Amino acid sequence: MKFHPVIAALRSDRAPQRRAQEAMAQACEAWRSEPGIAETLEELGAFGRGAPLEACGTLERIFTERAEAERMIGALCRHLAQALMVAPLGHPPLRHGFSGEASTLLLARSGRAQLVLRAREPGQGRIAHVTFRDGLRYEAVLAGEARGSIVRRCEPAGSAPRLYEEPIALGPGARLAFDCRAEALLVEEVDRRLVSLRLHRQSAELAPTTEHDRATGQLLGQSCGDLATSRREMMVALLGRMGRAEAAPLLAEMAREPGDASLRWQALRESLALETATGFAALGAIARRADDPLAANAGALRAQLIEAHPQLRRLEEPQCPA
Fold first, then answer.
1. Is residue 19 within 8 Å of residue 89, measured between CB atoms?
2. pTM score, whole prediction
3. 95-223: which CATH architecture?
4. How far apart are CA 179 and CA 24, in angstroms?
5. Residue 211: pLDDT above 50?
6. 30: Cβ–Cβ under 8 A, 6 or more apart, which residues?
7. Per-residue model confidence as pLDDT tens digits over 154-168
8. Phi, psi values for residue 300, rounded to 5°
9. What stretch of H or E contains 68?
10. Structural domain boundaries of the chain?
11. I need a surface site. Which of 137, 141, 235, 266 has the fewest CB within 10 A?
């Protein structure tokens, strides 16, 4: 395998790599010292703790006035470009990702809020599903041209959710705000790379994330809105798929303890599948708790299981001493 001389030099000597990263780190620090940037990052902390955007003057102007977001990101690009001229193989010390059609750069995070620079590559495609996540989102479009729709969810009492769409054209200067529990932006046609600055804040008490069929509004799936809890759900499911019967008592205890209802229900299901007696005992205990939000569902599942498998009643009968 052949290596470019510059790459080969880096492989044999780590000092240039360290110098390149030091240059990029210094560039980011220089950007943070630009007028207004420090104030913005300080207000991001207040916003992340729950303050309304209107109470964060500098941060609010970025997402309401056309020049502020452009000035902020222009300064970042200028400092990073100057560092890259000195160290072409350096990379910003900021969390980043690329999915093939979209790239992200996490500029700052504080509490429940984060500030992200995002780019969407040119292309088009129909989006069949709509996802709603709990939180607030503000967006400032910096460059590019695209078209899509704002999808709003309405849930009339006693009926299925309904989705309403509003076509939208996106271009430089556009400023958007969304309540992500009921609003979603679908970008389906990108003519020129769409670059935007996003401010997102999760709710203090996260509602589940829901996915709907775009054409009918039908609920297709639901997951926990909290990333940490979602990871625990995946771990619980993995124990079930691995058939780890020794984990059944732990999962049953997890189901009994107060906490996220979705996680508790997942733990209850897996404990039942891994060890019926242990799981069924936890199911009955939860069904008997009048103040437990899972009581009704647990009672219904217990009744269904007993109807299908009457022998399960024996697990609830007191054992006579020998």
1. no
2. 0.75
3. Sandwich (2.60)
4. 35
5. yes
6. 79
7. 887 767 788 999 999
8. -65, -45
9. helix 66-86
10. 1-93, 95-223, 227-316
11. 235
